[in-house]
Amino acid sequence: MSDADAGRQLEAHTLHFAKERHAPVARRPLPPHHLARPRHLGSHRLNNAAQDRLGVKRAHPARLYDYILGGKTNYPADRRGAGAAIEAFPDAIVAARQNRNFMHRATRWAVQEHGIRQFLDIGTGVPTEPNLHQVAQAHRPDARVVYVDNDPIVLTHARALLTGNDAGRTAYVDADVRDPDRILERAAATLDFGEPVALSLIALLHFITDADEPHRLVAHLMDRLPPGSTLAVSHGTEDFDPPTMRRLAEVCRAQGIELALRIRAETQAFFEHSSPALELVAPGLVATHEWRPTLARVGVPQLPGTVGRAEAAVWAGVGVKS
Ligand SMILES: C[S@@+](CC[C@H](N)C(=O)[O-])C[C@H]1O[C@@H](n2cnc3c(N)ncnc32)[C@H](O)[C@@H]1O
Q: What confidence tens digit (pLDDT) does each residue in 290-312 have?
């Protein structure tokens, strides 16, 4: 079976769940039995070859994160992995939601306050509404968005991301952040690199170990973007609760996921390696829930004091290229 056939088989059997998946996650409270609820979307409908090609026999960050956010695009291995991760880090659901909310606010800031209309989002994840293009195009209908991910399952769901409008455009590139030239080349079909671009690396870089030189990769991408471009990064850290996050990293390693948690200085360095170095906008590098909470969507307020740094567990910041 080819990759395309495996993808089609998967897509056919996930379409049943599309309606439910499209309910906005922010407004969909997790039932108390969320983690124990039996799932009907499972590997039993994929044959063995498709399971191998799509890598669903092992936990994968995109699907594990989807499960933690209450999504349906996940498999038994992902759910087992998520269960173990939540046992190690019981606030994983809070952290995932705060991370997603940071993405919404950073996107809103880029459009409304920085006047950006082009986005390059690498490490997109399984579609979860509102997706980045929906946030951007709600304020700026002509916004253009290129999504990039290396997970074959995210690829099969890309269609849900390509729901632009007449003025704006949305595209999907199947690529690995470790191949930045391929990303830039493919993104150029949709984005005009003569105009500022908001590069969005949300909860991605902690999956890139030092051996792959993540700081060099980010600098390479930013160096190709014109002045006025921005970089939004969120990154898992053990700074706020070292024992818990070390336990989480061990659990992930046992699932085959290498988690490169980085301390504040290492995360800040993502803004400093490009030429010129980026200027962090206020409030600088902070925990996800602390980044411009007042930009929260009306109806989903960020309640002060409801989340602590140890629960958020993720650094977040936005830098601008001068
Ligand atoms: C935790 S999810 C984050 C999704 C989304 N950015 C968010 O924050 O809501 C991490 C995503 O990064 C993707 N990813 C991991 N390693 C990658 C790589 N080397 N190249 C491209 N994408 C990658 C995974 O497939 C997954 O979709």
A: 999 887 665 555 565 678 999 99
Domain boundaries, the chain: 3-90, 93-320
Do the Cβ atoms of 70 and 97 come closer than 8 Å? no
Atom of ligand 1 nearest to the CA of 64: 1
Confidence (pTM): 0.86
pLDDT tens, residue by residue, 25-82 = 333 333 333 333 334 334 446 677 777 767 788 999 999 999 999 999 899 999 999 9
For residue 308, the CA-to-ligand 1 centroid distance in Å is 24
Candidate of 89, 150, 212, 213 to mutate for ligand 1, largest count of ligand atoms within 8 Å of Cβ: 150
**Cβ neighbours around 256 below 10 Å, total:** 12
The span from the CA of 103 to the CA of 317, in Å, is 10
Q: Which residues line ligand 1 (CB under 6 A)?
A: 61-62, 65, 99-100, 103, 122-125, 149-151, 154, 176-178, 202-204, 207
Nearest CA to ligand 1 atom 23: 123
Record: fold of 93-320: Rossmann fold (3.40.50)
Amino acid letter for position 84: A
Q: How far is CA 20 from CA 28, 34, 71, 72, in A?
A: 10, 14, 9, 8
